[in-house]
Write a structure and sequence with these properties.
- This protein is about 45% helix and about 25% strand.
- With about 90 residues, the chain is of the alpha+beta class.
- It has one domain.
- Strands 1-2-3-4 form a four-stranded antiparallel sheet, covered by helices on one side.
- The radius of gyration is 17 Å and the shape is flat.
Length: about 90
């Protein structure tokens, strides 16, 4: 388990469908994902993962506002169109 700015993430390696070696980083740390509609995110390099973690931390209030606006828009759509469910 790796850590950057107190956020935990992992390095993973796997084989693709055509047996090529692939690798990348994944983060599922709820400290930065709580309250938004993202469960996990990935990156191809360590620098890219650091950049994404920086973005999630530094833009947290903006991300939460966007989530709230999205939730309101979805609710308005359902209310306006008399949504009955699938």
């Amino acid at each position: 388990m790796l850590e950057y700015r107190d956020v935990k993430f992992e390095y993973k390696e796997w084989r693709t469908w055509n047996n090529q070696l692939a690798c990348g980083y994944t983060c599922e740390d709820q400290k930065i994902l709580e309250g938004i509609d993202t469960v996990s995110f990935g990156a191809r390099s360590l620098d890219e993962m650091h950049s994404k973690i920086d973005s999630y931390i530094d833009n947290r209030s903006s991300n939460l506002e966007l989530k709230e606006m999205s939730d309101k828009a979805i609710q308005e759509f359902y209310n306006t169109n008399h949504y009955k469910g699938d």
